Input
Amino acid sequence: MVLYVLLLFLEIAAGILDCPKNNTIKIIGEENLLASRLLNFSTIDHHLDQCGEEAFNLLLNQEKKSVTIPYTFIERDFSSKKK
Output
């Protein structure tokens, strides 16, 4: 059974990934940060830059509406990099 763990602090994720017996743990980061790219583990990108831009435009135009910005799941295989 694979345990999926969502960790906000990528340093903690890196420490867990460094353990030799972590075959059942899958780390998922947030926002496609540099650490997740360098350590080659999956991440969820919420596109915060687009969220901020849309929020600013709504405020600037004094609009009250809902805007949907889909997230992107970026799957990577950490095990292929851990040699």
Remarks:
- The beta strands are 3-6, 25-30, 43-45, 72-74.
